[in-house]
């Protein structure tokens, strides 16, 4: 319930609030002064933070410069400078950390400072690793791995100078070149190249060395040099990685310090700006406080008059609207008790008139909705004590009856649209809806019988198409198998035809060959008689060859003596006659081979004489055999002529059979193609039957539970 106050109490309250405002202005001015002093202290602290961050940035730059100087000159003094710069840097970081913790407005910079401090610590550690790596490499040419490498290469070069082989020295110079290339470029590929040169050096032949001991000593020196260079390369690459990491840490830390510096400067500027603004606000508050007091009293006086007059004006306007039929304006409450009582009475009168107007409007809307086909709209329940209760209940009962009947009709029609024939009109319909219910149930029953019959026909059609498809496939496969077998038989018969033809041609060729053989047999008999006479002449020539071989023996003997004398003279001549001794030895060997050849020829001639005698007897016997062969060939020619004639007749018969089988094969292939087409058509018939079953299966029939027409048709 809204609280109201009398007019007198309201006036006293306004006066008290004005006094409280004046007191609040005095307190606010004192607070502004204290805030200004605080801002001045914050400005001084922010400027101090900016100075510390600047010193940190300078110290970090000095450390970076000491790092570069050390890498350029490799002197210990730059290590000390680097350590001093980092010491100042960490002292400034600790001081800055304490200031940030004490300043509540700058605590958001603490994570950045801690991150920068961690990276600076990592930078210090990696610089120590860089110094250690350079000490291992050697700060000058005589220390560290650099000194070991220098001493190893000098030992190898001294040993090679003692040998004086240019090829070995050139190979060593190539190794030194790879060494210098790595020092200049830092590319690890030169390690592989030096290893390859070492392997080439070790492949030099033993003739380059004075002894095996010298070769072993040089190989050991070369191995020492190779190992020193390998260690130098590995350490140099590791040192390069540390350099890159140092650069990365510096590049990551420097932006953090710059961000801290910018944040500190921005904070100082913001703090100064806030102080200036506070001063201006204090002056403005002092100038406005007097005017605010006068304005407050004027405002309260005007507000009090409006609080009294506005509700009364609103009541007047509401009464005029109700007289015109507009009951939408609510009477606003008032804090003044007298005005609030008048407004409450007018508001109750407005609500009663608005309730009657609302009921009339609701009845009009329900009637309009029913005219548009919407029977779901209802009248709200009237308030107790009103005379419209019976009217409201009657209108709502008419709408409910119409909505139920039309809803049942819509349910049946929706089920029919989804193919469900199990849904019927609900019982208990009255009036015109009872007649509509009987008509719809009759329609559903007739449609159910039609779909049932169509489902049975689809099942029979599907089964028949399946049987036709299976039978067509089996016949088609058997036809294809028969066609394949007949095709193989035709191919075999064709091959048999070719073989018979080839046999006939071979028989004709054999007949010709036998004619040629008969002619050759006659010629061979004449040649055998001529050969007999030639062998006798060979026997006479063998005696002449024996005399010639005797002469060759004498020549070989004389040549052997001359070669022996030449060897003796060459031996007397010493080193100058060495070539003649070799020639004499070769001549002696040639004479010996000539003697051996003459002996072999004599043996062959003796054997040939025996063979010639034997050949005369054999030629005589072969002449008689050739005569017998000639008579046998004559008989064989007659038999082959008979075989050739018979083969030609068989070839003609087989060719006729092959032609007939080819015609049968063509007919079988055409039958197989026709059966394949029939199988394709039956398959299409099966697909169409399945589609029809699917269409019918969308209907759900009564009396089968969840079983659909599609399942029934499939069965």
Automatic annotation (TrEMBL):
Transmembrane residue ranges: 6-28, 284-308
InterPro entries, A to Z: Chemotax_Me-accpt_rcpt, HAMP_dom, HBM, MCP_chemotaxis, MCPsignal_dom
An individual GO BP term: chemotaxis
One Gene Ontology term of the molecular function aspect: transmembrane signaling receptor activity
GO cellular component, one term: membrane
Pfam families: HAMP (PF00672), HAMP_2 (PF18947), MCPsignal (PF00015)
Keywords carried by this UniProt record: Chemotaxis, Membrane, Transducer, Transmembrane, Transmembrane helix
Domain HAMP span(s) in chain numbering: 306-358, 400-452
Methyl-accepting transducer domain sequence ranges: 457-686
UniProt record similarity statement: Belongs to the methyl-accepting chemotaxis (MCP) protein family.
Protein's name in the database: Methyl-accepting chemotaxis protein
Species per Swiss-Prot/TrEMBL record: Salipiger abyssi
Lineage: Bacteria, Pseudomonadati, Pseudomonadota, Alphaproteobacteria, Rhodobacterales
